[in-house]
Amino acid sequence: MGLFNRKNTESAVAVATLPVDPALAALTGDYTIDPAHSSIGFTVRHAMVTNVRGTFGEHEGALKLDGANPGASSASIDVKIASIDTGIGDRDGHLRSGDFFDAEQFPLMSFRSTAAEQLGGDKYRITGELTIKDVTKPLAIDLEFNGAATDVYGNERVGFEGSAEILRSAWGLTWNAALETGGVMVSDKVKLNFDISAIKNAA
């Protein structure tokens, strides 16, 4: 089921416009991301030998799905940096400090989509702009559409999960420490993880 625009293919023969999928059209509308049932996190290599995982406990966002014109769909997310949680308080405090995110001066990490495409089946790539510490760079997120359902409270939900990789240094997150055995304490490469449940807004 396509939620975003499908890739165009070149052809010498004009192709008739396909009818709108009724199931897709039924999903058209504005959605609010449900933070209680969504997760935004990251994975980063530590000391060259293991991975540290963390999440951001406070975030909000919105989706606009257009079943008749999937290319008009969009997404926006704002993440509160101070809500970072890796399970170790001292490490979380360091990440909030000026060495890393400087959460006091730059409290939000934001993403605004600019385009999306179907990669095949329920797999998609949404592109947009990620802002961290007032630095804005392009970001592509690979997503899988997990489906739509009406929950026990009558809310119409859609679900997505996906990931993206960034080099944190591109956003000014450059702190590091050299290891005696070679290499560095924290990898420049960071994997961002998204598990999103969104509720359709009332008409």
Main sheet: strands, sense, barrel: 8 strands, antiparallel, barrel
Number of strands: 11
Helix content: under 10%
Rg, Å, rounded: 19 Å
Distance from first to last alpha carbon? 23 Å
The number of helices is 2
- How large is the share of residues in beta strands? over 45%
Structure, described:
- This protein has about 200 residues and is mainly beta.
- The protein contains 2 helices and 11 strands; from the N terminus they run αββββββαβββββ.
- It has helices at about 20-25, 90-95, and strands at about 30-35, 40-45, 50-55, 60-65, 75-80, 85, 110-120, 125-130, 135-150, 155-165, 185-200.
- It has an 8-stranded antiparallel barrel.
- The longest helix has 8 residues, at about 90-95.
- The model is unreliable at about 5-20 (pLDDT under 50).
Give a nutshell description of this structure.
The chain is mainly β and 203 residues long. It has helices spanning 22-25, 89-96; strands at 29-33, 39-46, 50-56, 59-65, 74-80, 84-85, 108-120, 123-132, 135-150, 156-167, 186-200.
Give me the secondary-structure topology.
Elements: H1 22-25, E1 29-33, E2 39-46, E3 50-56, E4 59-65, E5 74-80, E6 84-85, H2 89-96, E7 108-120, E8 123-132, E9 135-150, E10 156-167, E11 186-200
Antiparallel strand pairs: 1-4, 1-11, 2-3, 2-11, 3-6, 4-5, 5-7, 7-8, 8-9, 9-10, 10-11
